[in-house]
């Protein structure tokens, strides 16, 4: 399974010279490389450290004792659509008391299984004893609004409702600590993570990678924010505006990216959280701009010089796909997963909201 975190190739304003046939062939290769047997929201058994994992019928809550250690696949029906997700329960998670929950949102063209394999969250969960959800976007994408992204946007899918119901469902099955629920995502998944903290108050903190805030976010509530971005990202440009996968939000697979410059996005969240002035430190290619905020919250921007559209420390892309699809290799200057988890662990939901 290759760690794709990019939008589906489309004929966009920066791709006008490529033929539809060439793009269709490229997408076919993309899907072939990213979708081996068992990948996606089908209700199949998945590997786990203790053997084959269980699958739960849609809408059926499992007692904690029946949720297997390791990965298990499940479905949930929301708005009349059957949605798939993977749940990782490490042996180190003590279910005799409340445990943290991390929701990891894959990028466009990805899946929950791909995200589980590519970004190191299961190993982090093993070390630190928290649960991880890897949901599947429909048609390998997430809807942020009518102009992004892909078929779910075109079809009016409510992914905020899906993730909200998913978190509630797992909270009924397992002793999830409501003050330690977190969401992270890359690219299109990061867009949804931002939409979730704009539209809901269910998460204590967000960790966004190679992403931005797009669409309406009129009245966000305070939340801790960690944003990691490669300075040379051409898909979600560090300087804001449309990227190389952008097609203006038109056609059967609309992709419109209209986010602000990344430093301005961090400044906006500092304003929302009433933070103090950020402290800036640089260590080689990694620059951190970190601000402390009331009630124990924080807003931090990590900029990685020389890095593009990628998850720092993630699994490398297959060389053939990286060359053909013009993918950026993961930076080795930072382990994004460990960095995000440490940020999450230090920033639970303040008492009283």
Provide the spatial order of strands within the biggest beta sheet.
Answer: 1-2-3-5-4-6-7-8-11-10-9
User: For the report, how would you describe the main beta sheet?
Assistant: 11 strands, mixed
**Total number of strands:** 11
Overall 3D geometry? globular
**Low confidence ranges:** 1-61
Strand composition percent: 15-25%
Q: What is the CA–CA distance across the termini? A: 39 Å
Number of helices: 9
Query: Which structural class is indicated by helix and strand composition?
Result: alpha/beta
Mean pLDDT: 85
Q: Rg from C-alpha positions?
A: 19 Å
What string gives the helices and strands in order? Answer: HEEEEHHEHHEHEEHEEEHH
Q: Into which percent range does the helicity of residues fall?
A: 25-40%
